[in-house]
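ESCALATION

Customer reports they have been waiting on this structure for their group meeting. Please prioritize. Original submission:
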Amino acid sequence: MSFGDPNNPYGQQQQGGQPGYGYPQQSPQGVPQQGGYPAAPPINQQYGFPGAPVEMPGGVKAARVMLWVVAAFQIIGAIIAFAGMGAVEDAVNSSGSTADTETIANFGKGVLAFVAVLALIFAGLSVALALKMKTGGNATRVCAIVYGAFICLGGIFQLPLGIVTIALGVLIIVFVAKSDGAAWFQRPRA
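Update from on-call: job pushed to the front of the queue and completed.
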């Protein structure tokens, strides 16, 4: 086989036009090159994102509002639980107290206090996530998804009124997990 042989398994040498395999190609007009090869597109374009979002997407804004609503629900639930502690105390006092009723009342007040404190903790988490949505990174997104799952789980224990809480939790997860939400939380920051 010779240089110009048409039966050459490596193909014929190109004459004057394009270089053969293994050589850097000419890049199209306006595409920067790195070491003779065209530069890779920015990370946002590689994964289908047109560029770093400048404004918070509507879904993320909606998830932020829902976090504020969930925080309000949690605070209202804590107030109701603390009021329930007073109602248990009044019921024990009006029924005549014995050692057994005192023990049961103390247990009931303890459970209500635990629920109230847990509701306040979740309200604080909801407020922190809502505040962090504007500047937070991917960790904020992951925390919002996990928090949405906990909201759904908590809504199961509150059925039938917990349907609203479950719906809010699912919507928070969906809006934050969408591609525009991912682009928002993974955007480059100065």
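Sent to customer with the following note: Residues 43-48 have pLDDT under 50 and may be disordered.
Escalation resolved.
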